[in-house]
Amino acid sequence: MFVDDLDPTKSLIHLKGQESVRILNYKKLLKYDMVEIIVLLTDQKISIIGKSLNICYFNEDELFVKGKIQSLQFHHRV
Q1: Shortest CA distance to 13 belongs to which of 62, 55, 57?
Q2: Model confidence over 47-71: pLDDT tens digits?
């Protein structure tokens, strides 16, 4: 980890190939189905697009998704 990774005002995203993504310090889960998951981060939104997406676990600070991840799309807040 880098020192910048510890900034509590930012979300941290770990991507493992195309099989899993772990998001730390997120704000809210906005949409969840097997082909798209949308998560509100601290300063933007992220869409996880894929097939057979499954939220393996989540709590107020962390979200872990597995499946065939095809793309990540960032949407800046306006």
Answers
A1: 62
A2: 999 999 999 999 999 999 999 999 9
